[in-house]
Request: fold
Amino acid sequence: MRLIKSTAIQIKDKIVSGEIQAKDVVRSLFEWIRETEPNVQAYITLNEEEALKKAAEIDKKIENNEQIGLLAGVPLAIKDNICTKNLYTTCASKILKDFIPLYDAFVIDRLKEEDAIIIGKTNLDEFAMGSSTENSSYKITCNPWNFDCVPGGSSGGSAAAVASDLAVMALGSDTGGSVRQPAALCGIVGVKPTYGRVSRYGLVAFGSSLDQIGTLTKDVKDAALLLKVISGNDLYDTTSAREPVPDYIDGIDSSISDLRIGIPREYFAEGLNCDVLKAVKDALKVYERLGAKIIDISLPHTEYAVAVYYIIANAEASSNLARYDGVRYGFRASNANGVISMYCRTRSEGFGNEVKRRIMLGNYALSAGYYDAYYLKASKVRNLIKSDFDTAFKKVDCIICPTSPIPAFKIGERANNPLEMYLSDIYTIPANLAGIPGISIPCGFSKEVLPIGMQILGQHFEEKKLLQIAYAFERETDFHLKKPVFKVSSAKI
Amino acid sequence: MEYEVVIGLETHAELSTITKLFCGCSTKFGSEPNTQICPVCLGMPGVLPVMNRKAFEYALKIAITLNCDINRFTNFDRKSYYYPDLPKNYQISQNYSNLGINGYMNIEVNNTIKKIHIHNVHLEEEAGKLIHPEEIGADYSLVDFNRAGVPLLEIVSCPDMRNIDEVESYMQTLRKILLYTGVSDCKMQEGSLRFEASISLRQKGSEKLGNRVEIKNLNSMKSVLRAVEYEIKRQSIVLDKGETVARETRLWDEVAERSERMRSKEEAQDYRYFPEPDLLPVFIDEKWLNIIRDTIPELPLARKQRFMETLKLSEYDACVLTEEKVLADFFEKCVNVLNRPKAFCNWIINDLLREVKDRKLDIHNLPIQPKQLISLVEIVEKGTISSTIAKEVFSEMVQTGKDPQTIIEEKKLAQISDESLIEAVIEKIITSNPEAIEDYKKGKKNALAFLIGQVMKEMKGKANPKIVNKLLKDKVGI
Amino acid sequence: MGMDRKNIEYIAHLSRIELMVNEEEMFIRQLSDILSYVNKLNKINTENVKPLVYPLNMSNVFRDDELDESSSREEVLSNAPSTMGFFFKVPKVIE
Ligand SMILES: [Mg+2]
Ligand SMILES: [Zn+2]
Reply:
């Protein structure tokens, strides 16, 4: 089997046992990238030279029997809205073209400490604003299962990279589903941790009270490993939690008999694609077979989640993106007369339409006379949505629902209808509003052989339980082993 | 027509912490441009603020000192506006739950106390500095972000002031409070203390406020007073013409001594305040409140009153002593050991302050210790030296830092009270001045003074005058 | 409440974004759609409901007043679109 098709844990074990060298992994990975990336277009920036250097270091460490990290030699892709020192971080925006951060994000520090190898920065919707990765000012990423379809978004580059073995693991960010939805549409595992579980320091802010860095992996165990590495308290992010980080792999195979699974009826309403519905229903049968109880629940304020989200996320975004003004870094428009015109030209030329739309919507929701009607109102309804979950979790251990109402859609299909695009996040948004963790795992395929994802939601800081529940299903099925097939030249190693 | 003047002041004070409000950059004043900056205070992508506890507690300290109700659950808000010296193009400040509200501060205007209400006290971040090049026709400005993120305390008064004197007293009293509590160095020339005034006029007796005009760019207390005066004139002229004053913000021009319209109410900015999601709220419990309360010293006004009532100092003396906290502290250290308020007060106000002034010394490290002044006062009382010699000893103390005792011994300045020694000299004088004795016996009283003078001269002024006087009288026998 | 030309121009200025006429029309249309969608929130009674701003119940996190290393000025300025000497350079700002 082609080496880079294996999981992170498999690769790391082979490297530690000396069966292979980190060099080999990185080399064969970049060969595969040269072959396949032109079709998938997952990356904005590649980091081959550095990656090879790092691999050599790790091989040396192993030679000298030095202590090595939990991700020794594992090639990782990083969403391009996570700051990497001395490596371009563009947020897929023209306004940050050629921007090189002076510092590493907290999660990047952690990855480096654990000897992971950063191979590149992946494509996204500009500033993570989108659900299809079509709003990138650099390129359009294709869904590895069908190049005419979107990979989902906004972490579409990371999801497509992992699904097509262009990376062994990847980091994404999830503000309203941007990790879980592309994971579902690309047939891989995506985890959005509890708000505060992973430090946001170095994640370019979109919606500060919603953003979380998440993992995109080939299976649940890899997710458990990567999550363990990036979780934990950070003094530079006061919203990061002090809760101890458990070993997510240890006991991941524990039994889930008499687990109580809640099924929110509001999530199985009209607008849900029938293939998706069937796949999730079948998945629930698997759980029943494993001894879990399926309990019908209600999350009454679900229908308001999207509205609340687009007010709060964009209000926060409108101020988070005010700093891109052409003064201290990034792009500055020429041909400006006076400082105000410099601002306006810079931002008009630097931002794409989706970003402009959201900045204006956010400023509108905060502007004099509208604050109470929009931002404040939304914040109150947000509280109702959170208490919906609190009530539900008194009755059930977790909630299972589709990750996305539909499988991957065609590129361009929804590009001209923002509202329709927003509605495709309807199942993922509530978790961000409530700050609870969610995981999306492959649970089937549509008639068109496009992956379908199932979402498992839990209470704050119950990632460990969610991973156990996900693993129980993964062990019984082989959806996660399915790979998109596209012409592959003679494989090496 | 007769108008009532209504004035409110908005004060910004930079807090004297070592580091900025949200990052570990230094707040040192006057460093090389853009050397005290980091990703956080430059608002680089992905950074987050972390609150400086010291700055927060300083703000809390002032909120308590100004008798505010403390918001037990306070949080921060983003105030959005675009300006090149504001890195994130929003300022982290407070709007919906200010740290302190509904407070007051007592000021004194010609011996009567007036209560000025404080609308709110809150904590926010300083902006950077814009430099406008001298060269004519320059089409650019330059930005230095060293100040960006320095902790800034904003104190907003209610429109309770009615004239210039109250404005001046308010500024002085507030400045003293900030210095006394040690939260700010209040160096106006360095911009660490700034005022903005809002002024409106209304017909005497009328309840409703006139249109408010805000005045910015006031770089010294003097310019505040000038600007307020100017504005009062300007508005009364407008009103006398039967016109209405426009609600606007005006910029004070120090050189031209007049203000100019900066922006009208219509152009007023839309700050889009909303809660800062990157900073957690702060919950203030009774315990914490008490800890901070205990760090608040007695305030100048109260201290002055106490000096007058319990130590019986004159208004003037008490005022001078409490002007500078260090002086008042020095004074109290002395009085606590030896209860001679007037004596110590005189030494400090007359001699110590003169020395400090003449030698251009820093008031914050005085050249002598309280215990040294105490022993000097004791020595004079014992009569070991005369008060004239004491002055000599004092300036010697200031120069050398030596104890008075040492100086007296080294310079042999102690008075001679040994009767046998004095008697010997008296004999000598009597025998060498027979005619004076005669005159004295004839009743010429001034002859005695002459003889005393001779004795003192002979003994280089160190003889105890009382004893000389007594012995001499005995000798010539009356 | 709705989005019209006057509104969009005001919002665009607040956002420091310059819009071409045809863009204005597009954004008016799209923002109106979105706003009329989000107006569904008015159906809910939120009296006595507290706003939720912080997803976790945490508070009082501070740092001590201790110096951290600042960045190198050269590095910082190298990221800037326009500099002069040791300063960031911007078009003339008139107060
Ligand atoms: Mg302010
Ligand atoms: Zn800094």
